[in-house]
Amino acid sequence: MFAKRILLVSMGLVCLSQLPSTASAQTFITAWGGYGNGDGQLMTPEGVAVGGSGDVYVTDGDNGRVQVFTSAGSYLRQWPMPPGRFNIAVDANDNVYLTGTGSAIWKFTGTGIFVAQWDVEGGPRSLAVDVLGNVYVSGGSLNTIREFTSSGAFLREWPNQWQEAGDSDQPESDGLAVDASGNVYVACPWDNHIQKFANDGTYLTRWVGGTGRLTFFPIRVAIGPEGYVYVVDGYGGGRVQVFTSDGAFVTMFGSGGTAYGQFDTALGIAVDAHGGIYVADRNNSRIQKFGSGPTPVAGVTWGSMKARYRGDRGAPQVTTQGN
After folding, report:
1. 97 and 116 in contact (C-beta within 8 Å)?
2. Which of 16, 132, 184, 233 has the fewest C-beta atoms lying within 10 Å of its C-beta?
3. pLDDT tens, position by position, 156-207
4. Beta 114-119 vs 65-69: how paired, if at all?
5. At a CB cut-off of 8 Å and minimum separation 6, what does 100 contact?
6. What is the pLDDT of residue 171?
7. CB contact at 8 A, 309 and 67
8. Which residues of the chain have pLDDT under 70?
9. Are 53 and 110 in contact, with CB atoms under 8 Å apart?
10. Is 36 helix (H, G, I), strand (E, B) or coil?
């Protein structure tokens, strides 16, 4: 049974409900951005990701650029991208992948040097990178999850397959994340649930939010180093719900508003190796960082994660199927 708590923190208000006695509260740490087009300013931050270096990458659609910050929010660099709404994923080597306008996937180095581009039919909206560097794509009219190598070679696909009784269409997907074992999590906002697949595409489970299906609008999803699943829930202006990897509700934080710890159209989310949580607060033109969540697992490295992943899955074979 969940206890009711309200935490007032000195740097802002973080709203929590149904907080289990075993869970820690996510506390506001800092925010950066501010409306404008100067270095470090953000007009419409929508995608956020953390690279292996710990740097934070942000897509700023109205300014048509990717900006890079330290984990504390200090501006580092930027490079141009096509105007529009973009999602972003960054691998352990700080290679950057973008999608969101048209059908293309773009790949850059962490300093903004263009590397590759490939097309994915269906207008993909979301993407994620696993610990081996393979790229997963979903969203738009694409009712499948597709996997590519880091250079764009097609590997496999499977249907975003859960269907409600009586539905003829598969659920429209949006956010996408992959955990250390290669399990894939898909946010389906219009069907109000999260889906989970095994690394071979086998459908495993689905779940709704801790507040129930009708008050759950999952937009983006990220996996923390301790295995918890962090979901941006767009209901009521925005909040973050946290689950175990099997979908058990842990806690939530945030609400609609402009104060620190509140969101106005929260979109992107990322979690770093230390458990720091970054949320792209679009209409407030800022990134907010939270911490003091569940304790990360000690001794987790990219090498150990890759070894675990390879042991579970093996290396997929590149096929000659088209995009």
Report:
1. no
2. 132
3. 999 887 655 445 455 666 799 999 999 999 999 888 999 999 989 999 999 9
4. unpaired
5. 46, 47, 59, 84, 85, 86, 87, 125
6. 60
7. no
8. 1-25, 84, 140-142, 162-173, 292-323
9. yes
10. coil
Q: Distance between CA atoms of 213 and 8, rounded to whole angstroms?
A: 28
CA–CA separation, 92 vs 131, rounded Å? 7
The answer to whether the beta carbons of residues 195 and 183 sit under 8 Å apart is no
**What is the chain's percent helix, strand, coil content, to nearest 5?**
5, 40, 50
- pLDDT for the residue 86: 84
Cβ(174)–Cβ(189) below 8 Å:
yes
Confidence (pTM): 0.83
Sign of the four-CA dihedral 223, 254, 280, 236 = positive
Q: Where do the domains of the chain lie?
A: 26-313
Decide: 30 and 39 in contact? Cβ < 8 Å: no
26-313 — its CATH code?
A: 2.120.10.30
| Predicted pLDDT at 164 | 54
The pair of structure tokens assigned to 258 is 């402009």
Q: Which 3 state secondary structure label does DSSP give 307?
A: helix
In the chain, which ranges are continuous DSSP H helix? 302-313
Query: Residue type at 7?
Result: L
Q: Is the CB of residue 229 less than 8 Å from the CB of residue 244? A: yes
Residue 17 makes CB contacts below 8 A (sequence gap 6+) with 2, 4, 211, 252
Terminal CA-CA length for the chain: 47
